Amino acid sequence: MNNRKLWMWLGATFVLSFAVLLYLGREIYLAAPPVVNVKVEGGRTLYTATEVQKGQRAWLAAGGQQLGTVWGHGSYVAPDWSADWLHREIVAYRDVRAQTMFQRPYAQLTTSQQGSVDALVKRELRENTYDAATNTVSVSPERAEAIATVQAHYTALFGDAPEMAWLRERYAMTANSLPSAEHRKALAGFFFWSSWSASTDRPGEKGLSYTSNWPHEPAIGNTLPSSAAMWSVASIILLLAALAGMVWYHGSRREEPDPKIPERDPLINAVPTPSMKATRKYFFVVIGLMLLQIAMGVVTAHYAVEGNAFFGFPLADFLPYTTSRTIHTQMGIFWIATAWLATGLYIAPLLSGHEPKMQKLGVDVLFYALVAIVVGSTAFGWLGTLQRQGFDFTFWLGAQGLEFTSMGRVWQILLFVGLMLWLLLLGRALWPALKKPGETRGLIAMVFLSATCIGGFYATSLTWGQHTHYSMVEYWRWWLVHLWVEGFFEVFATAVIALLFTRLGLVAASSANRAIVMETIVFLFGGILGTLHHLYWTGTPTSVIAVGAVFSALEVVPLTMLGIEAFANYRRSKAAPWIAAYKWPILCFVAVAFWNCVGAGLLGFAINPPAALYYVQGLNMTPAHGHAALFGVYGMLGIGLMLFCLRGLFERARHADWLLAPAFWGLNIGLAMMVFLSLLPAGIYQAWHSIDTGLWYARSPAIIHSGVMETLVWLRVPGDILFAIGALLLALYALRLLGRPGAKVPAAVGETQSHGGQAQPRGAD
């Protein structure tokens, strides 16, 4: 009955949280800044709404979020184009007004004269002249002159003007990112629109722009809104209260003791079925993709110092920054997801003792389909970028220009179909265990339900089109990225680890059942609505800041308690001699708990409150959190699951465990050095300048290529080397599994009854 009530609470949490998230999506749609025509007062049209929309497509085709950011989301070497346009327009407009008012450049004016110009510029940029009847924004002739100046800058920058070569190198851009003059003009219209949305007052809200005054630009009064400050305080108070409640709960209840540890490994005689053995190739692909991601990470990081070359070699001619970063981010998703998919396919027959007909064929088909998707999406994205294939090719086959969801729509559809096939294979293998009453049925159900959400929610990548409003693109994109990573992946991981521990006899199934459902409630209660903390400044209403601040703080609560679980798991790893065979998978799970606390919890909360994110969005504080959370949590989990599966797929004598110790510590210490010696200090240094001067300055070449920042980039090298060594040792461990031809393999799980109960040997695949 207690379990049934917990499941009811879980269902209620899921339904109500998504109802609120969908309702706020509707509010975002209604409150998003209109895509407007821009006209000079009583005169010509500067940009049509169609051009502005075309400019969005042009930016995404040129690299999009792999080439700088808009409203703070994307990459960090090139500027945030919204902040950059806004500041350039302010500077240009000051000079125009200084000439018309005092017949001198702005820099030559007295303090009082500059004050007069500043007040006029601020008033004009903040005044919302939008006419809903004609969908038009009007600007003065003088402001139109300033806009033309900034447009000329971007036209030259995204073209091949020789005078901009030095700046393109600073931004890690290639010449002729947009060969068409028409597209460059449209791009300028989109950047103007993103800047106008960030600076003009919302209708009926004086002193508050569509992006809640982001980015920080004191020259026109873009400063931290009081609402953001108040909700930040509220989120911190709520976090402390929730942490106190969680500590009280853990302290007040009696911990159930672990069961008596079996005298021998319960899985020692478990024999892989044909479909389980077919997952071997998945894990070797996992390691290959991880090595490719590391290589692309080295290239991408180096571009922050030498924008278009790699130690003097003109690598950008063949592998521009936008492509190397796209591959780096996509491969991280690919190899982690592949490890998890393969784990699901491996453990399903192990848990149920049932091998469905043609299951191996399905596992093989899925494997080759996934390889085709990875290779095809990467190759077409690379060729599309090099050859400037245009908007339609980019959207459908190339790289869409959106971080973590970059591959073309055709590949997204194919991947969704592949995930549905995975779900079918997983479900048909688990079905006997789901039907059979037992202590582990709840855990198995949680694995299957979280897998269903992982597969089903990938459909959110299909919700936006080429003409979707940018605010809504971001809304749906974060449904996929955040809900996958900080929601359903978390649940899947927790349930799989609990199942593995129960199968090994290290955890009682009854207590694991209750714990998993309760943990899932806590994860999803904060995680689903915590999605909104990514959307504070993307043209959303204040309600998004309120809900996002509160629930993103609650996301931290379960993460801080994982240290207790990590200690318990470490203690279990020493409970019996036979457990030494699983030492390194278990230590990977311990590392997951550590990086959950530090990477997702500490570094995540450091940037999640609105008052913090207002100043640091788009700075290196975000990749510090991202690397620690994505690799530290989900990467180490993928590695741990892979090591567990490989333990059952190859004879015990083949495993060179002595390689796993330096591999484990190399990966974890290297990651810590990368984050705490380079990325985090770089983010703090930029944050200082963002608070002191403005975001445009923190992202400018003067800071990005300052001596301090370039030194911090070079400080990544020791950690990167150690990390790469760890990955290579892991690859060597895997290769050694193939080095000695196999001994006889006994009969498969679930296949002992058809021959009078006697196990029949079956050759290795």
From TrEMBL:
One of its GO terms (cellular component) is membrane. The keyword Transmembrane helix applies. The chain crosses the membrane at residues 7-25, 228-249, 282-305, 333-353, 365-383, 410-431, 443-461, 481-504, 516-537, 543-564, 584-607, 627-646, 658-680, 721-738. InterPro entries: Cyt_c_oxase-like_su1_sf, Cyt_C_Oxase_1, NorB_cytochrome_c-like. Gene3D superfamilies: Cytochrome c oxidase-like, subunit I domain. Residues 38-216 form the Nitric oxide reductase subunit B cytochrome c-like domain. The keyword Secreted does not apply. This is Nitric oxide reductase subunit B cytochrome c-like domain-containing protein.
